[in-house]
Amino acid sequence: MAAPIEIKNAEAIKKLNAHDPEIRSVDMLAINIEQLKVLFPEVITEGPNGSAVNLDVLKVLMGDDTTTDCDEKYGLNWHGKRQARQLALTPSTGTLRPCFEDSVDWDTAQNIMIEGDNLEVLKLMQKSYAGKVKLIYIDPPYNTGKDFVYPDNFRDNIRNYLELSGQVMGGQKISSNTHASGRFHTNWLNMMYPRLKLTRSLLSDDGVIAVSIDDTEVGNLRRVLDEVFGEEQFQAQIIIQSNKRGQTYKQIAKTHEFLVVYSKSETVDFNELEKPDGALPYTDSIGAFDLWELRNRNPEFGRFNRPNLFFPIYVIPESLDECGYSKVSLTPKGSDSVKVLPLNSEGEEGCWRWGDEKIKKCELDAMSPVLVARKRRDGKWNIYEKSRKSTTRAKSIWLDTEFINEQGTVELGRIDMGDVFDHPKPVALLQRCVFLTTGPNDLILDFFAGSGSTGHAVMAQNAVDDGKRRYILVQLPEPLDPENRDQKKAADFCDEIGKPRNIAELTKERLRRAAKSIKGENPLFSFSGDLGFRIFKLDSSNIRAWEPDRDNLDQTLLDSIEHLKTDRTEADILYELLLKFGIDLCVPIENRSIAGQTVHSIGDGMLFVCLVENITRGIVEPLAQGIVGWYKSLAPSRDTVCIFRDSAFADDVAKTNLAEILNQHGITNVRSL
Predict the structure, then answer these.
(1) DSSP per-residue letters across 601-657
(2) Confidence band (pLDDT; 50, 70, 90) for 156?
């Protein structure tokens, strides 16, 4: 074996640190500046921290010659909005650590449940899931005065989360948000705004966000979503009958909640619901049908703007189809033919829904033609389409009994969790949302997971249509206090199942039991369907940041020699790399022993990772050649990144020689941690 060439340039392998852009989550501010630079390069200037935007120049380009931000303007403003916007732009320094012991069918599961603060999780998801989520459904706190708020710490939201979840000691507490606070709506808006800002980039171009809400904040929610998605992307504010008896603490008993729906773009296309039995009231030899008038009844359309759809259709009164309706033609058929034009009740010229070319393709003289005529009481004729369409668009009022909130409690009772959650959303409600907005292979996100109804609904819908939809759920591990009357049953349940007392544990248990229930009810689906899920937990990065102890610098320097935290596992580091390099958390990871060292291939060769603690000169060449052989056999479609533990190399020669061999064979992106 030829000895490798020794090149004494250790920079051949770039060392990644905690502040490297590749290791941090997406920098939304930098992306915004780059987009502005493409459109208006003259507004980009130099600031104290790099590129900045000259707002005065931008205003001039927008036709505004003023130089102040204080002018009155239409929109929703509140104290803290600027900071809330900045919070959405600030990258996360956290990571998601895999929790194998809490997961179900880890090796095959494509569903994910994340235990953590949803603001940080949304930031961490940006690289791996941007543009991939088809439906975001959330049921956020309704701000009734009892719901907790998320007191985000602008300086260090990871520490804030650890304090909230009781993992470190601190002063952050989960609290009620009451009218007496003086910041009732402001607190809710400051909590929601940065989270909603982060959702838009996660949605696919034809993606949809649906938010359950009640009267308290629906107006503010609409204004925020108008700002984030654009007023033109508003799809519906659906009224849902959530309580048949009604809440009677006011003069009018409230029986409803809202589902506010926005799309990311105009390309959205909702699925339609099956019509109920009897919706097609007529029958011929072909099957059931309904009669739809061919005249376009929309007053926005007529001969004045659709002249090509204004032409005569002739009725042949004595020529009947099998149901007794008169047949029609585009040309007169004898002296008895009756000329019909698309005129409204006022005699004004409208237009047809179909053009003459489409009508020419129809067999109008068949036994059961698609177009027929029927005489009105006033002696005039209407032209009808025999519509056999069995589906219809969803309406904006949902009165179905299965959507009532009590049904959610009943469903939890079937899996022996009936008293654990207050007002859980019914599975049928979430299942309708999933059906209307997604296809069989789409991804659904819920970052206020709560009782886990969304995950349950995704599995249930997959069982119905044999789909392979995936879900990602996020839930804060809010501690449960057995001394609190409202939380006692939930805390006692956690004790019964031997889990820590927090809401995230209840969410996970609901998913386990829901999967078992669906498996029992759908034995065929259980063989091919995905009823498992992977658990991840939010934590600080596995990569040690430089945090010098001024009173003990010697020990700080010794600790900094190892770049990775010593209390983290190899799996922790692997999954942080997936997040930071934009790879799905459920891609396959294959392991091989090469030259006696464990090497991981992630995503069929997108990423090779070797985190062994000792790489000597003697094993450099067989290790590198083994990785090269594996790389060539996989032939990945995108540039491969190869990562090693920086402290593992015996010296700079070993480090540089390994990089050189990889470079010679096309693996040029080599990094160390």
Answers:
(1) EETTTTEEEE--S-B-HHHHHHHHHHHHHHHHHH--SS--EEEE-GGGBSSHHHHHH
(2) low
Contact of 270 with 262, CB cutoff 8 Å: no
3-state secondary structure at position 359:
helix
CA distance 258 to 237: 6
- Judge contact between 83 and 191, C-beta under 8 A: no
Task: Grade residue 151 by pLDDT with cuts at 50, 70 and 90.
Answer: low
Q: What is the pLDDT of residue 143?
A: 81
Of all helices (H) and strands (E), which one includes residue 240? strand 234-241
Sort 66 into a burial class: Cβ within 10 Å, 0-12 / 13-18 / 19+. Answer: exposed
DSSP labels for 190-220? HHHHHHHHHHGGGEEEEEEEEEEE-TTTHHH
Contacts 24+ apart (CB under 8 A), 589-597: 592/626, 592/630, 594/622, 594/623, 594/626, 594/627, 594/630, 595/619, 595/622, 595/623, 595/626, 597/623
Question: What average pLDDT score do residues 164-171 get?
Answer: 63
What pLDDT, in 10s, does the model give residues 570-629? 999 999 999 999 999 999 999 999 999 999 999 999 999 999 999 999 999 999 999 999
The answer for residues whose C-beta is within 8 angstroms of residue 30's C-beta and 6 or more apart is 51
Q: Which amino acid is at 499?
A: K
Q: What's the rounded mean pLDDT across residues 276-302?
A: 94
CB 507 within 8 A of CB 114: no
Closest CA to 638 of 590, 583, 591: 583
Helices (H), 466-612: 488-496, 503-521, 523-528, 553-560, 570-580
pLDDT in tens, 387-415: 999 999 999 999 999 999 999 999 999 99
Exposure on the CB side of residue 548, measured as CA atoms within 13 A: 5
> Of the ranges 83-87, 100-104, 114-118, 625-629, which one carries the lowest mean pLDDT score?
83-87
**Mean pLDDT across 231-254:** 91
Tokens, residue 473: 């759920």
- Residue 157, phi then psi, degrees to nearest 5: -75, -25
Q: Within the chain, which residue ranges are assigned CATH 3.40.50.150?
A: 107-272+395-539
Helix (H, G, I), strand (E, B) or coil at 243: coil
Per DSSP, the residues of 273-329 read EEPPTTSS-EE-SS-EEEEEESB---TT-STTT-GGG---EEEEEEEE-TTSPEEEE
Output the CATH code of domain 107-272+395-539. 3.40.50.150
Q: Taking a C-beta distance cutoff of 8 angstroms, is the pair 225, 260 a contact?
A: yes
For the chain, state the CA radius of gyration. 31
The confidence score (pLDDT) of residue 1 equals 42
